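Q: what sequence does this backbone want?
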């Protein structure tokens, strides 16, 4: 189908505006390539999700102002308006400002919004809309800065900001990144800038409803963003999808997304509650289950990182509590975690396929599986040896006891944390090499004992730690900073677990899970 044929998609009798917007979106989506969609963050919200998002809003005002940034065919506005009109018979006037950067979509947004206007007219409601064909960030970034510096009195305020913003990483040189420096640490994702701007465009009693990736809930790249976000708004509601595959199935997107609703804090520090709602996918979204948590159990607003923990059931809730009760950390036990210093492409000329007199072992991510190091293990051109010489010595580490931890898991790996114990062999070289996609855990100016190494590797690989990790980390990265901040059980417990495994002489994951579950009485949670 070509773009011009999408213009002929006609209305079916009495269909809902959101259904029409959905059909327009699907038709348009068939005219553009997957690469175009990825580059422009253009994945349209399925009607069931749009309806769910719309149903989160409630208001008793007669006039309502809505903003829909990155509107596509305006399905979210349509679903929001349908829900508001159903709930509130007093609405007389609705105003919308929509932004869309893709000029080819404007005529479709125009079609769905003019149909919405008719639909509202039949219900006695006046509807005015403007579709701005501009970059939403470039138009509004100035509101990110403190009002005293930059903000003019022309601020537009909205009762609702509803959005499924674009998701993609922006390069450092992108003008939008320069414009939004105040919320950026390292490599930003465009959606976080949409969210941050939205926090500044709400009326005091307004609400923002967004569907976004989970990645902002943790990780250092989102630190400044989280700090900014929680300075201005508080989250009331979060919806989680059990299955990544089901959410944007039509567009083949494997992205872990969540829906959030937030409202301005207006300078107040409020002890509030957060509803966490869950469903497995699109098919059961209407039957979502809800739990209410105290905000402080999910986000420590006094912490520097402001990581968001999201339990989806009572077991995960109990696990978050268990971790909160631990006061230990790697740092407190004088244990460090660092990233492997050897960046393969820079060290290429020193890496060897076969051992030579002056080489030592080089460990890569593929050498590490749960509780086991498979070495040497030839894979593609990942040489298993590295030369020891003056140029490489600053990048090699002393041959001691370590725990190696993968820095990334594959999207479909059953577990996010994959760690293996490494024990120094007396006859081995003084140095070893660790490639950059691995973290290594060690005791600076000292040694990790065998029981410590075995205990730490076992707990990191355990179901308990994996479950806890997943409650705050929605992506596949395992950052050293996050591991440093992670609460740890008392060192004595870690050593006892290590000792027990060594005595049993059984390091299978089955046994590791059994031993750790028994220690933390997990079966009782
Ligand atoms: C994830 S899609 C969602 C579309 C629609 N809101 C929906 O829910 O189906 C994001 C939309 O934002 C548009 N977009 C991307 N960057 C933008 C920008 N900087 N300003 C305005 N719109 C943008 C894309 O063209 C795309 O239509």
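A:
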């Amino acid at each position: 189908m070509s773009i011009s044929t999408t213009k002929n998609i006609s209305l079916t009798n009495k269909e809902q505006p959101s259904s029409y917007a959905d059909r327009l979106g699907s038709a348009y989506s068939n005219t553009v390539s997957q690469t175009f969609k990825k580059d422009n963050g253009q994945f349209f919200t399925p009607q069931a999700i749009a309806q769910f998002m719309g149903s989160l809003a409630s208001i008793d005002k007669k006039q309502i102002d809505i903003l829909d940034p990155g509107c596509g065919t305006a399905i979210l506005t349509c679903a929001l308006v349908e829900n508001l009109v159903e709930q509130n018979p007093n609405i007389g006037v609705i105003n919308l400002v929509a932004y869309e950067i893709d000029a080819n979509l404007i005529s479709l947004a125009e079609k769905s919004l003019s149909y919405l206007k008719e639909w509202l007219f039949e219900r006695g409601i006046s509807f005015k809309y403007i579709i701005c064909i501009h970059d939403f960030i470039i138009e509004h970034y100035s509101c990110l800065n403190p009002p005293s510096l930059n903000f003019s009195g022309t601020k537009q305020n909205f009762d609702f900001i509803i959005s499924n913003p674009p998701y993609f990483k922006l390069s450092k040189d992108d003008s939008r990144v320069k414009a939004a420096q105040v919320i950026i640490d390292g490599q930003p994702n465009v959606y976080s800038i949409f969210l941050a701007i939205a926090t500044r465009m709400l009326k005091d009693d307004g609400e923002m409803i967004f569907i976004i990736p989970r990645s902002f809930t943790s990780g250092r790249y989102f630190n400044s963003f989280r700090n900014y976000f929680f300075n201005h708004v508080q989250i009331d509601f979060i919806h989680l999808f059990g299955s990544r595959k089901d959410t944007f199935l039509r567009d083949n997107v494997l992205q872990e997304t969540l829906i959030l609703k937030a409202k301005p804090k207006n300078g107040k520090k409020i002890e509030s509650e957060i509803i966490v709602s869950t469903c497995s996918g699109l098919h059961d979204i209407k039957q979502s289950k809800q739990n209410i948590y105290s905000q402080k159990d999910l986000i420590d607003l006094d912490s520097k990182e402001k990581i968001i923990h999201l339990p989806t059931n009572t077991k995960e809730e109990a696990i978050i509590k268990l971790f909160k009760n631990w006061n230990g950390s790697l740092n407190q036990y004088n244990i460090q975690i660092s990233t492997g210093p050897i960046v393969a492409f820079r060290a290429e000329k020193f890496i060897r396929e076969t051992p030579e007199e002056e080489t030592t072992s080089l460990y890569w991510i593929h050498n590490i599986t749960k509780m086991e190091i498979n070495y040497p293990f030839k894979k593609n051109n990942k040489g298993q040896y590295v030369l020891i010489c003056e140029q490489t010595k600053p990048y090699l580490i002393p041959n001691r006891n370590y725990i190696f931890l993968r820095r990334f898991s594959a999207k479909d790996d059953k577990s996010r944390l994959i760690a293996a114990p490494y024990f120094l062999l007396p006859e081995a070289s003084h140095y070893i090499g660790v490639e950059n996609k691995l973290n290594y855990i060690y005791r600076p100016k000292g040694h990790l004992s065998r029981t410590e190494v075995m205990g730490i590797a076992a707990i990191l690989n355990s179901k308990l730690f994996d479950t806890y990790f997943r409650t705050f980390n929605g992506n596949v990265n395992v950052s050293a900073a996050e591991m440093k901040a992670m609460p740890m059980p008392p060192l004595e417990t870690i050593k006892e677990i290590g000792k027990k495994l060594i005595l049993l002489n059984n390091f299978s994951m089955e046994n590791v899970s059994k031993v750790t579950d028994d220690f933390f009485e997990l079966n009782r949670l």
